[in-house]
Amino acid sequence: MSDAPDILPRIAWIGLGIMGSPMSENLIGAGYDVTGHTLEQEKLDRLAAAGGTPASSLAGAVRDADVIITMVPASPQVEAVAYGPDGILENARPGALLIDMSSITPQTSVDLAAAAKDKGIRVLDAPVSGGEAGAVEAVLSIMVGGEQADFDAAKPLFEVLGRTVVRCGPHGSGQTVKAANQLIVAVNIQACAEAVVFLERSGVDLAAALDVLNGGLAGSTVLTRKKDNFLGRDFEPGFRIDLHHKDMGIVTDAARTVGAALPVGAVVAQLVASLRAQGDGALDHSALLRAVECLSGTRT
């Protein structure tokens, strides 16, 4: 792919949610021609305001695209937009590159790649980590599965969206690494939440304590990104509990398939599920703090 604006690939972007909207806007800002489709009119209006082209149908969005990017919530939504007479595989042109940036099961990615190959469509699975802030700031970590040649072709596009871009292996590998990422993030948030309750109950200056902890071995991107959420009890979603619940299901199922034991991950998966069952599924995953407060008898 050249940097010359007149020969940049034409992009179709499917799914303009918390992550998809800022990511597509970053591509527009880099000079890409982006046509987008989603179900919410206000998100299509946002795309148009950023300089993109809204499409009223999925088929219309993908028909002339060189690269099609999907960013939707889960495997059922990926299958819904990919398959069927109105789907991507029936309407994209042969030779197009389909990049699925959703977080889905590895097997869904493998199956999609096989089905797309029969249509002459290339596929990469390329889930991301970094949340809404990472999407806005274009500093996402992008873990990719698929053929090396397709990865090489897509890398300039990935470098507009993220800071760390790595091919992890064949189809499905990106999703496997993303599942591991979500395991680490959930356990890290849970540990931070427990520390916050412990520190507050002990009467120390919480803001000072989190600052010094983040400067040492206990520091993490999670603590950096979520510190203000903990301090202000601000759980406006950057990444919803509902989605992390889905991801914990993916990692526990995949681990069972390969025979890997995840004892701590299994506990945190249940804590995420319990928070969702209490009606907090739409909150940011830093709301795991609320579950710890409930267990400690201090939830407000």
Q: What order do the helices and strands come in, and which of them pair?
A:
Blueprint: E1 11-14, H1 20-29, E2 34-37, H2 41-49, E3 53-54, H3 58-62, E4 67-70, H4 75-82, H5 88-91, E5 97-100, H6 106-117, E6 122-125, E7 128-129, H7 131-137, E8 140-145, H8 148-161, E9 162-169, H9 173-202, H10 206-214, H11 221-232, H12 241-258, H13 263-280, H14 288-296
Parallel strand pairs: 1-2, 1-4, 2-3, 4-5, 5-6, 8-9
Antiparallel strand pairs: 7-8
Would you kindly provide a written description of the structure presented here, covering whatever features stand out?
This protein is α/β, with parallel strands linked by helices and 300 residues long. The protein is 55% helix and 13% strand. The protein is built from 14 helices and nine strands. The strands form two sheets. It has a six-stranded parallel β-sheet with strand order 3-2-1-4-5-6, sandwiched between helices. A three-stranded mixed β-sheet has the order 7-8-9. β8, α8 and β9 (162-169) form a beta-alpha-beta unit. The longest helix is centred in the middle third of the chain and has 30 residues, at 173-202. Mean pLDDT is 95; it is low at 1-5.
Structural class: alpha/beta
Order of adjacent strands in the largest pleated sheet: 3-2-1-4-5-6
Report how far apart the termini are.
Answer: 53 Å
Helix content: 55-70%
What is the overall silhouette? globular
**Helix run count:** 14
The helix/strand series, from N terminus to C terminus, equals: EHEHEHEHHEHEEHEHEHHHHHH
- Poorly predicted parts: 1-5
**Quantity of strands, as a count:** 9
Proportion of beta-strand residues: 5-15%
- Average pLDDT confidence is 95
How would you sum up the major sheet?
A: 6 strands, parallel
Radius of gyration: 20 Å
